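Progress against Task 2.4 (sequence-to-structure conversion) is shown through the following example record, which the project officer requested during the mid-term review.
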Amino acid sequence: MSFVHSHEHAARPHVHEGDPLLTRRDMPHVGDSDPAPHPAGLHRPRHESAHALIEFRDFCYAYESEPVLRHIDLEIDAGDSVVLMGYNGSGKSTLLKAMNGLVFPQQGAYLFDGAPVTPESMKDQAFAKRLHQRVGFIFQDSDAQLFCSSVEEEVAFGPRQMGLPEEEVERRVADACRLLDIEHLRARAPYHLSGGEKKKAAIACILSMNPDVYCFDEPLNGLDVKTRDWLYGFLQTLKKSGKTLIVSTHDQSLADALADYFVYMGDMHEYSDMPHVHINR
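Structure tokens generated for the chain above:
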């Protein structure tokens, strides 16, 4: 199957760099048939020290009787910046959900850092906690992600679930709110925030967990120009810090700014080899 198009030399749009990221900390690690081919390896040599973090092996999933993902073989290395592209309904959001252990293969397998992610493994609280510490998911609709009575409680929720001491929880909340410039929103109820403020609050919830992998589903959807400009810079900062990024987007300029390589999803919920047009020459 054809997977992606290499994208090492495309011109980048101008973005603001944003603030420095939270200090990176060591996070606990989770845990062979033939591995799936690394898509970027079809176009550029794979670095000998590359470490496969995310692996899909013949992954198939259907909602009721409707196929959503068909025979997905994909390998993403630690530190890759991957852009998922394709038409609405092609399976991009479901693939992100699978990466986060929210849906499971009905055929094939998904492995994170070498460990299979299955309904059975996710019943192990220690395993599930490690996966959710290391893989953060920012939903397209921020309202679907925010459920606490204040922004401060939202940002503290994840670190508390990790069992961190309250002093460390407070430090992470303060760092995340400062870095995203939402300190003045800490006491506000999320449902009273603007769309851009909700997006920042949702990102702060994940940032406070300091994951290895950030999954963004249509991150620019519904944002004004100022917030879009800020988010461009923030995503570039994440990429430069060495985080693994998987971003689903229809925005070609964002894709050009972030992608090490592209994964195109076709109408049949499989990989599709589609022409890529550079718009930021």
